[in-house]
Amino acid sequence: MSRADTADFKALFLKDTPMMDTRAPLEFKKGAFPHTVSLPLMTDQERAKVGTCYKKKGQDEAIKLGHQLVSGETKQERLEKWLAFAKANPDGYLYCFRGGLRSQITQQWLKDAGCDYPRITGGYKAMRRFLIDTLDRVAVEQPLIVVAGETGCAKTELIKQVTGHVDLEGIANHRGSTFGKRATAQPPQIGFENAVAVDFLRHEDTHPDRPIVLEDESLLIGRCALPERLRAEMAKSPLAVVEATMEQRVEHSFNNYILDKLAEWQSEVGEEEGFAAFADDLRTSMGKVERRLGGVRHKAMTETLEAALAQHERGDPGLHRDWIQPMLEEYYDPMYRWQLSKKAGRILIRGTFDEVRDFLNSDSVKR
């Protein structure tokens, strides 16, 4: 029994529905949805030729050219990929930009090959509009609590232990600070926004009586910018401030930004090249803090970093702690304390990791 086409965007996203994106690769690269695979009807070059033809000669000629460009073995290769997707994802759907010609043609060719596969009416454009509206609405309607604290207080780990959290840094694939770059690429801005909106939609569906718990972030998480409405709501939401000793913060930063970061790089590009990439990553980040630290302090920390890297390459990473602590004390802490002083009236709770986590999981924060 064939399934009908759908415009039930909420159900698609809540069910993590597999989707086949038939837009051109360049369109997909600019932004897509979670659980989506790029299986284009046309390449970027083919799409450009058809678009030019459409402008000069109209739709009928453009369609004719499209069929000429995607025919024979080329058509068969693409059809086989679509059929494989449909077989692997019997509950999935396909879409194009507006739910128009490209998805209709893909759907028809699948049907001609004996596979009835439904499409999403309205396509990418309608789903994107739905997610933008959802994020703006839920950010206003659902209470937010923002977890703040000095660098190294394990805020990300804390929110992951709280019912109803949204991990913005996880979605952005970045640790959120100057040294926060990860070995793998960040999503494009639109993909980041789409994924945040889906998590907000899921929270509203599964935990409507609980606030959304988020980590305190600046405008940019790496190169991913917080959506404007969300940022505005976070800027006036209550704060849960987690506190930790300097020793705990140094150790957490050491594990997070040294041991884990190195492991990520080596997992991506191999042991030797991974260490070189890790070292360059740290040097680049160190270069970004020079202006605020000032020449003398920056020079001293850079020298300690280089000594730590040399010792680390010989098997002992411990010396990194000797630049991490002054970095916390002289770069991060003054900035944080100044920012927190402007938010003092919004503080809901101050406490240790366990105290803040338990409070955020308690009934006292329910609506």
Explain the overall architecture.
The longest helix is centred in the C-terminal third of the chain and has 24 residues, at 246-269. Helix 7 crosses helix 10, helix 13 (271-288) packs antiparallel against helix 15 (295-313) and helix 15 packs across helix 16 (321-341). A hairpin with a 2-residue loop joins strand 6 and strand 7. The protein is globular. It has 2 domains: 9-121, 3-Layer(aba) Sandwich (Oxidized Rhodanese, domain 1), CATH 3.40.250.10; 131-367, Rossmann fold, CATH 3.40.50. Helices cover 58% and strands 8% of the residues. The chain is built from 17 helices and 9 strands. The model has no long low-confidence stretch (mean pLDDT 94). The strands form 3 sheets. It has a 4-stranded parallel beta sheet with strand order 5-4-8-9. By secondary structure, the chain is an alpha/beta fold.
Q: What is the third-level CATH name, the topology of the largest domain?
A: Rossmann fold
Q: What would the average pLDDT be, to the nearest integer? A: 94
Topology as a string of helices (H) and strands (E): HEHEHHHEHHEHHHEEEHEHHHHHEH
Q: What is the CATH first-level class name of the largest domain?
A: Alpha Beta
- Return the structural class: alpha/beta
Globally, the shape reads globular
Count of discrete domains: 2
Strand order of the largest sheet: 5-4-8-9
The Cα radius of gyration reads 25 Å
Give the strand tally.
Answer: 9
Our measurement of the CA-to-CA distance between the termini, rounded to an integer number of angstroms, reads 44 Å
Unreliable parts: none
Count up the helices: 17
Largest sheet: 4 strands, parallel
The CATH level-2 architecture of the largest domain is identified as: 3-Layer(aba) Sandwich
Beta-strand content estimate: 5-15%
**Residue share in helices?**
55-70%
